[in-house]
Every structure is written in structure tokens, then in C-alpha cells.
Amino acid sequence: MDLLSFLAKYDDTLKNHFIDSTTFLSTSNRIQNNLIKCTADVEMDYIKSEIKKAPFVSIALDETTDVANLSEVSIVVRYVLDGIPQERFLKFLNVTSERTADALFKIVCDNISSLEYGSKLVVQSYDGAAVMASHLGGLQAKVKEKFKHANFVYCIAHRLNLVLSRNMDNIKDCKVFFLTLSGLASFFSKPSKRTRALDIHVQRRFPKVAPTRWNYNGRLVQIVFQYRNSLIHFF
């Protein structure tokens, strides 16, 4: 609605539509969701047509936790058209209730089936979690078993995070520093009494810490530094 209101300031047709129309404003949540779905369907058809022309395709999955504390998997495909690499984000899928290798394998197979590129799949890329990367029963092993040419490539961003983490672990002062900060984040994550005390006295919560995501540690350092005086007073 905010976007439509903004566009109406610069589009007389849209502006007059909102003023004069009495039967179809197209602003209800149901209609807007239908419009979004139509747009997504057109985009997906376009991606599918590109994939049909591409000689090879790779797929990348990454799991993250959103602001509502739900676990989601992002799906991205990459391919080459006329010598130019193309990368297309497809969707987010909620996997909070089921994050096993079998469940993720079904997601990959459904995606490959819907876009019809099973015979072209040459690369699969995920993070380093055992459910993803294990060569025994992990996702990459299951995909490799069904799609013989789908070589596994370790997630580059994840590898960089691990390199940074392992280097810091070998420097005693750095290791103690980050363990202390992550301890603060864990201590104030629960119970609710601690969280409420932090809200009252500091008015800022600590972000969750993930050992394989270096940017989470960076955010934590910035927040502690920014609110250091309030935290000292609170303690």
C-alpha cells in the first residue's frame, strides 16, 4: 500500500483510479497476494525458459533464521547464457519443523522437477552443516546418488567464516574476547526476566551468535561497543 500511494503521486492514472473507482481498488490483501503470485509465476516461467537454453545448471541452498525465529532455506540457481553467468533467486521455504537431509533432498528434487533441469545439474552447493555436506547420509550425498554429475562445492561464504573463526581461536586474547561476548548473548537470550531487564536498562538486545556466521559476531561487537556505557551501568 505504501508503494502504491507513493507511485500514485507521480502517476495520474493510478491517482485517479484511487479517487474515482468504487468497485475495484485492488488494495485488498487477497488481491495483492494474487498479483504477487501472478508476478512470481511470470518470473518463474522466464527463468524456466532460460534454463532450457542453458547447457549446465547449478543449485545452491542456504539455511538462515529470520526475524520471527523461523528457519528458512533460500534456493538459488546459476547457469550460463551466451557466455554470461546468470544467478536467479527462486524462493524461501520454511523448514522450521523439518531440517533433515531427507526433507531437504525432497525440496531439491521438487525444484529440479518443476524447472526440468535434472540432466543439466552439474554443481550443488550448501553450507558445512553435517545434514548438508556429509558425504555419507547428508544432502549432497543423496543428490549425488540421484544426479551423477552434481559435484558438491563447499559454500564459499561459509568457508570464509570458518577460516576467520579458526584463526581467531588460535589467538588466546581474541578467543576469550569473542567467547565473553557470545556468553553475554546467550545469558540474555532467556529467561524472560533477564531479557526484560536488558530492555529496560539498555533498550537494546544482543543478536544471536552462530559459530559459522562471522557477520553475527561482527554485529554483536558493534552493538556492545555502541551501548558499552549503558551496559557498564547496567552491570
Overview of the molecule:
This is DUF4371 domain-containing protein. InterPro entries: RNaseH-like_sf (IPR012337). This protein is of the alpha/beta class and 235 residues long. The chain has 3 domains: 1-45, no CATH class; 54-154, Nucleotidyltransferase, domain 5, CATH 3.30.420; 159-234, no CATH class. Helices cover 54% and strands 17% of the residues. It has helices at residues 2-8, 12-20, 29-53, 101-115, 130-133, 139-146, 156-169, 172-187, 192-201, 214-226, 228-234; strands at residues 57-65, 71-81, 84-94, 121-126, 151-154. Strands 3-2-1-4-5 form a 5-stranded mixed β-sheet. A hairpin with a 2-residue loop joins strand 2 and strand 3 (84-94). The longest helix is centred in the N-terminal third of the chain and has 25 residues, at 29-53. It is flat. The mean pLDDT is 84.
Which residues sit in consecutive blocks of at least 5 with pLDDT less than 50?
Answer: none
N-to-C series of helices and strands = HHHEEEHEHHEHHHHH
The CATH topology annotation of the largest domain reads as: Nucleotidyltransferase, domain 5
Helices and strands: which structural class? alpha/beta
Strand order of the largest sheet: 3-2-1-4-5
Number of separate helices? 11
Architecture (CATH level 2) name of the largest domain: 2-Layer Sandwich
Largest sheet: 5 strands, mixed
Radius of gyration: 23 Å
Strand proportion? 15-25%
Structure summary, number of beta strands: 5
